[in-house]
Design a protein that fits this description.
Elements (H helix, E strand, L loop, with lengths): L1 H23 L4 H28 L5 H6 L3 H18 L39
Helix pairs in contact: 1-2
Amino acid sequence: MAKLYAAMVFAFIAATVIVITGLSSDARAITVFFRSIVGFISAGLIVYILLRILAAQDIFDFDAFIEAKDEETLVMGEEGETSSAVDEYTAEDESPATGEAEPAETGGQAQFEPLSSDDLTRMETPK
């Protein structure tokens, strides 16, 4: 059902754009009306067919995405794909490569220190 709603939204947007451009170009009202109907139907069908193809190819199922109401369902679906990448990630990768000292882990939040002009690196102009 979500596929149909998405198709209707895109179709309405297409029809609105057609009506606005038709009225701004001083076209006859009946011409604008028929063009907007054709644009509404064609845009709706294209979006609906595209969403059906994406769901059939298991690329993106719009209905299944909408039906997953809680985050646990979404997280459980993503964990199967990203679990190997998370396992390979270690604390050694988090160490800074610039040689800066690591802040002490006191369990509290880090304090905000605003930048001052003394801390900035100055660039010299080429001669």
